[in-house]
Specification:
4 helices, mainly alpha, two-stranded antiparallel ribbon, Arc Repressor Mutant, subunit A
């Protein structure tokens, strides 16, 4: 089994958020991202710092992670690049 590279991990995290109606709690996101807790925290911190995701709290103080416009754009561009690579068998 091939190890995921950094861009694939970021894509997978963002895709999980999008596929869960653009709102997911951190713990289910951790489980679905298939990363260690430390790696997950590092990626989430980076995604927050770069503005791909944001953290919101509901009225009860529960934390949710959602995509920003940049996060949606990353997914679109990743799909385009992946399609290009597949088209040319690279």
């Amino acid at each position: 089994m091939k190890k995921r590279d950094r861009l694939e991990v970021i894509h997978d995290i963002l895709k999980v958020i999008r596929d869960n109606h653009n709102s997911i709690r951190p713990t289910p996101l951790l489980r679905l991202s298939n990363l260690s807790s430390q790696s997950f925290n590092d990626y989430i911190r980076e995604l927050l710092d770069k503005g791909f995701v944001k953290e919101i709290k509901d009225k009860k103080g529960k934390r949710f992670i959602t995509l920003t416009d940049s996060g949606f754009e990353y997914l679109d561009r990743y799909k385009m690049i992946k399609g290009f690579i597949d088209d040319f068998n690279l």
